[in-house]
Amino acid sequence: MDDLDHIGLTRLPTANRPLLGLTVLVVEDSRYACEALRLMCLRSGARLRRADCLKSARRHLQVYRPTVAVVDMGLPDGSGADLIAEMSGGVPRVEVILATSGDDFTETEAFSAGADGFLAKPLSNLEVFQTAILSRLPHDRRPLGPRSVSQEVIVPDPVAYRDDMAHAADVLTDALDDRTVAYVVQFLSGVARSAGDSTLMEAAIALSESRDKGLPVHSLAASLAGMVQDRLAEKVAI
C-alpha cells in the first residue's frame, strides 16, 4: 500500500500543517540541505524519507511511492535528472516532483526531465517550500479554508554542515579525475551557498572554471581541500 491509498484513513491537512498526511522523499547528498528540508517537513506536517544517492532512491521507490519527491540535480552516482525522468514517466506517477540545486543553470535540465518545479538553494523559506508542493496538488488534497503565510526562515544545525565537510574531505582524498572534480565542485558550491560560506563557494567556483578551461586543477583542489579541513577543525556548538 502506498502513501495515497491510506491517506483518507489517517490525517488530513490543516491550515497550520498544510502537508499533513504526505510523504516526501528527499534525494539529497548534503546533510545540511537535508536537515533544512527535514525541518520544513516537520513544520508542515509531512513525513520525510531520505536517500543520499540514485541507488538508494531507486531502492526506496521499489518499496513505496511518495506523494512528493525533492531531487538534488547533482548526486554522487549520477544526475538527478535521470531519476526525475524515471519518476515522471512512471505509472502511477509521483504526484509532485521538485528539483533542487545551488546551480541555477540546471533548472532548464530539470524541467526537460519532467520536474514540476525547481527549488533554488539555499533552502530556507518555509512558505516557498509549502507553496511549491501545494500549488501542484489537486484542490481536494489541500487544506480547507485560509492558510496562514509563514515567513519563518529555516536554519539547519551547524553540525550538519560539518558532516558535509567530512564527506567532501573524503572525496578530495580520492584520485581527482574529471568526474570527481565535477562532483566535489557541485557539492561544495551548493553546500557553501546554503550555509552562506562565500569564501568556500568562491574557491569551488574557481576550481570549476579552471576545469572547464582545461587548466591544471591540482593546486586549486589542494587549496580547496585545505579550506575544508579548516572547517572540520573548527569547533561547532551543538
Automatic annotation (TrEMBL):
Entry-linked Pfam families: Response_reg
**Taxonomic superkingdom:** Bacteria
Q: Which InterPro entries does the record cross-reference, listed alphabetically?
A: Bact_response_regulator, CheY-like_superfamily, Sig_transdc_resp-reg_receiver
Task: Mark the residues carrying the PTM 4-aspartylphosphate.
Answer: 72
Indicate yes or no for the key word Phosphoprotein: yes
The record's section on SUPFAM superfamilies has: CheY-like
Q: Where is the Response regulatory domain?
A: 23-136
Q: Name one GO biological process term.
A: phosphorelay signal transduction system
Keywords for this protein? Phosphoprotein
Statement: the UniProt record of this protein carries the keyword Phosphoprotein: yes
From the Swiss-Prot or TrEMBL record, give the protein name. Answer: Response regulator receiver domain-containing protein
Look up and give the organism this protein is from: Primorskyibacter sedentarius
